Amino acid sequence: MSMVRFLNEIKEPKVSELGGKGYSLSVLIDNGFNVPMGFVIVSDAFFECLKQNNLMKKIEQLTFEINENNLQEKSGKIKSLILSGKIPRDIIQEIDGNLKRLNVQYVSIRSSAVSEDSLKASFAGLHDTFLNIKINLELVLEKVRKCWASLFNERAVIYRIKKKNPHLEGMAVVVQEMIPAEISGITFTKHPADEKSLLVEASYGLGDIIVNGKIQPDYFVVDRETLEVLEKRIGNKNKISICKGGRIEVVDVKKELAEGQVISDENVNKIARTCLDVEKIFKYFQDIEWCICNSRTYLLQSRPITGGICDRRTQIQRCLQQTFNGVEIHGKI
């Protein structure tokens, strides 16, 4: 079976193969939504790498030993083992062939764990994402290994302990064309305080600056039935995250631009309509990432809103700095 599958060619998507992100992106494409072109390195590739490097039993034993007192030590050992493993040649050849087929200069490389983005667990921000990575086979393979290893990021281990989830699970990796977004945003199709409305947040540049809480995005409350903008707050968007060469750079925004409305009410209306169409497909309230580039809107991710909490920035900030059994855990997305 192929270990690498193009998103637009997946006929029967399975979370067990594609992970949460890969699954939702495949479904979005299949339903006609505009999603950046890319492919998924399926979860079996991760397990095959562990097997061929004789790591499966070692890692299984270490995961059995993990508890709240030793999670830093054990997770660190597991990550080192995964990062030291050699990716099997046939999988490398598949990745190389699909990178050539994708035929772009820069990609995003994102973890897609099997248990993430489900109705029972979110894992938002707990596994690794790499943006604006230059197409170079060795560099891409390095980021793929890091995505696999991020299954054992300390904050992800903490989350699984709290949720009583198994530690060793499938981890797929999504590789997509990097869209140099001019505007990015997040839509929660259910407002945290009112099920009759939805919430749209938007700012300039890439969306990582919104998720990380580094700026105050524009904030729009929209009626779910009429799509009327009921409330708006224009944030101080004084920073912008941009693609520059093979890296991401955060630069200052001019005052008059920072204090202006980043997106028109008409476009807020269009995005709200699109996101409600996405909700109909998944049949559950959604947390949707999107961006605009050259007047085209791209959907980057859709996940169910779990636990009735819409403000994912708050959720992620809690994950990035936690205290567990007296140990303070720090991380970054």
Question: What attributes does this structure have?
Answer:
333 residues, alpha+beta, Dna Ligase, domain 1, D-amino Acid Aminotransferase, Chain A, domain 1, 2 domains, six-stranded antiparallel sheet, five-stranded antiparallel sheet, 11 helices, 27% strand, globular, disordered C terminus
Structure report:
- The protein has 333 residues and is α+β, with helices and mostly antiparallel strands.
- It folds into two domains: 4-177, Dna Ligase, domain 1, CATH 3.30.1490; 183-330, D-amino Acid Aminotransferase, Chain A, domain 1, CATH 3.30.470.20.
- 37% of the residues lie in helices and 27% in strands.
- The strands form four sheets. A six-stranded antiparallel β-sheet has the order 9-8-7-6-12-13.
- Strand 14 (321-324) and strand 15 form a beta hairpin.
- The chain is globular, with a radius of gyration of 20 Å.
- The relative contact order is 0.15.
- Residues 308-333 have low confidence and may be disordered.
What name goes with the CATH superfamily of the largest domain? ATP-grasp fold, A domain
E-strand count: 15
Tell me what the CATH architecture of the largest domain is: 2-Layer Sandwich
What do we call the CATH topology of the largest domain? Answer: Dna Ligase, domain 1
**Classification by helices and strands:** alpha+beta
- Poorly predicted spans: 308-333
Q: Oligomerization state of this entry?
A: single chain
Q: What is the total number of structural domains?
A: 2
CATH class of the largest domain: Alpha Beta
Classify the helix fraction into a percent range: 25-40%
**SSE topology string:** EHEHHHHEEHHEEEHEEEEHHEEHEE
| Amino-to-carboxy terminus distance | 32 Å
Largest sheet: 6 strands, antiparallel
Q: Give Rg in angstroms.
A: 20 Å
